[in-house]
Amino acid sequence: MAKAAVTRSIRDDHQKNFLKIFNGLTGKHSRWEIWEDFVTLTAIEISNSTDKVNATERTKMYQTIISKYSAKERDGMAEMLAEVVMGMEQNPDQDFLGSLYMMCELGNDHAGQFFTPYDVCRCMVEISGGSDPAAENAGFFSVSDPACGAGALLIAFANLCRRKNICYHNKVLVVAQDIDFIVGLMCYIQCSFMGCAGYVVIGDTLVNPATAYDKRGLLPAGPQNRIWYMPFFSTDIWYMRRQIAQMNLLLEPKGEPAKIEKADTKPVNLQKSIKNEPKAPENEPLNETKTGQLTFF
Q: Which residues does the annotated region (Disordered) include (predicted)?
């Protein structure tokens, strides 16, 4: 039954080939371990192409993972990556990795992850999607998904921009976050292959949400090792925008501490000042009329 369900869910030959190679690697390693390692290795390869700050630590992680596999198994993972690239190039309007994740029932085995079907995401984007003209006049606008999963909503939004002739590579800043490391990297891989510009933050949105030093999200704050920058975020136009954002931060007026002004005159002797203080005038006596009413006259 499970195999039949998977077969019915396969959309194209690239997913079919991916699953064939993926299942061929099982035996020595569990299905989840292969998936986890494949996603991590792919994300590190993408990240190291532009992010030199985290490259050293991530390269160590890469070497630790790849050392578990033989040369033949490494070739199999390279073929799996090729199928992902060709599948997304042939049909960019899909959640390639997310659908495979659910086909393999990995969501049931790991943290109870269940992804929204891509057709539902596309419907949601069509209903609520669109750009702000004021934001477009400012050069770009941002889209954020604080529980991104494999990135289905962001992929659907990118395809909506394409249908509206909006160059999302230069006009849209993508900010995504997910608490799950592997799932967040799945979003990172797919958004990177889509040519999106932005970053994915790994962390709990409720406890430690993604923040930025600037108002537009160009300078993400927090530990850099939990941020995965998409390659298009390093293109000239986005690099220039980040530099301008840094300059604006430096030029912003900062509140000066309150100054305590020194008195020009020396403090007077309190006792002397009390003695020299003029006495208050004595109250005039009040007269009482025959009826008992008080009067000054």
A: 270-297
